[in-house]
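Q: Hi! New to this. If I give you a protein sequence and the SMILES for magnesium ion, can you show me the bound structure?
A: Yes, paste them in.
Q: Okay, here:
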Amino acid sequence: MAPAVLTRLTLTDFRSYEGASLDLDGRPVFLFGDNGAGKTNLLEAVSFLAPGKGLRGAGAGEVGRRMPGEAKGRAWSVAALVAAEGGDLRLGTGVEPDAARRIVRLEGETVQAGRLSEMVRLIWLTPAQDRLFLEGGTERRRFLDRLAFAAEPPHAAAAAAYERAMRERMKLLTDGPDDPLWLAALESRAAAAGAAVASARIRAVRALQVEIDGRADRPFPLASVSLSGDWDDAPDTEARLASTLAAARGRDAAAGRALSGPHRTDLVVIHREKDRPAAECSTGEQKALVLNLVLAQAARLSRAESAPNPILLLDEVAAHLDPERRAALFDEIAALKLQAFLTGVEAALFDGLKGRGSGVRVDRGALRTVED
Amino acid sequence: MASFASPEIERLIALLAKLPGMGPRSARRAALALLKKRDQLLTPLADALTDAAAKVRACSVCGALDAQDPCAVCSDRSRDRALICVVEEVGALWAMERAGAYRGRYQVLGGLLSALDGVGPDNLRIGELVARARDGEVQEVILALPATVDGQTTAHYLAERLADAGVSVTSLARGVPVGGELDWLDDGTIAQALRARRPA
Ligand SMILES: Nc1ncnc2c1ncn2[C@@H]1O[C@H](COP(=O)(O)OP(=O)(O)O)[C@@H](O)[C@H]1O
Ligand SMILES: [Mg+2]
Ligand SMILES: [Zn+2]
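A: Thanks. Here is the predicted structure of the protein with magnesium ion bound:
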């Protein structure tokens, strides 16, 4: 498949942008400007070209431009041209006036959000993820699910189905009626979807490990990645999950939540050289570990024949790297021919990308491409 | 919103806005179109609505909507009485009829099981289905329910409820897209899904 390249981005009433557009040539773009200039907002706008809530986890109703004191954001849109074989495709997303739901348009036709993953695959790393290893499992599971989803888009539907079936089951367990047939029907759905989730996750983790192992020559710490718990792609996973859920009804009802299942799986990351869990490493080491995971994932996806090339969104990543690692990051992006969007306060951070990318000055909602 | 139209028009807009696929904006457009075309649209629509409200009822056998009870399908002697096709709503029944590939009768559930939405077995025409399946004439119950969690949970539940009814329970083949509902499907897909049905 031809690499997915955004050739033009147009933002309308998105966060701090009233109206802005940017022409792109497929090479990495570095966005620089003061704090609050709108750099992360632009990355977030790009992240809405994937299904879901974008890199800040915001609802479609939150990202419309709001003047001080305004309670409600405006109708907004993010439009892109995506280079394709027969010419550029027009892709757009946003909300309409009076509407709450985000819609997606392809060539002017409203389509299901899932169609986005046919054209654009995104991988992002933000300062919020610096705490990936320090916080509860929820963020790590999201990170894990994004890894699995980027490689296998049906993962999102399976994860949503699992969650829905489990919520239905909890509702029955807590509020009744006590209907064993209904519960068994829900547990059977939860088990089928949960087994699909578990196997997509373990495939993602295994593929990532292979990729990491092949990258031992880079100046980034190597991770050993695995999953906690006992839900994977073993052939009996579905049956085992169904019987585990059936046996746990009383316990789950008493606890008010389901105590076992793939929703409890955690991503376990060990700093290989130090032989320590990531959470026990220094902040700098943790950042480098995550960045290497993200780059390994990008490398893996960029080789997938049947899928669009990944687009990388790296928010405030460059500033935290020492010069050797920063150079390695830029080399990697160039070698993989990735379209990447990087941000930083100073243009000088991106000197290593000179001649291999373009710079954009971000200044209070205005974008200005600077020659390199 | 500031009121700029008479209460009659406001009421019309408010009701139109409650229709599926309509929002406040499209409701205003529709109301305007109706009021501008009094003779071609507004009056005939009002008559059609009155007529439908007076005559159309849910069939006491299968739950389909018709002006006669039992409905046209249930009263049709040429229909195969050994088959019952279970659908979520009347829209799916209409899609099956349009496809013209099915010669049995129906059971319209009137929704899908959903604990979160407060819809349980007692809120659906499930007891009626089980009773019909046991009446001796019926040999096969075909589940034509959406490939969503609620649709498949309901299908699984029905298969269990029908396990000792002495009928075979089958499901439409899954050419059906995830989350897809039957009434979106074209006739060829429905006919194909029907031919390739398999034990539920
Ligand atoms: N819905 C919104 N409407 C208008 N401005 C917004 C909205 N959401 C965030 N902003 C503004 O965007 C700015 C932050 O932009 P951001 O992209 O995070 O900056 P940075 O360049 O530091 O990454 C803030 O000034 C904030 O007030
Ligand atoms: Mg920022
Ligand atoms: Zn009938």
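A: Residues A 15-16, 33, 35-41, 63, 65-66, 73, 362 surround adenosine-5'-diphosphate (ligand 1) (CB under 6 Å). Let me know if you'd like me to explain how to read the tokens.
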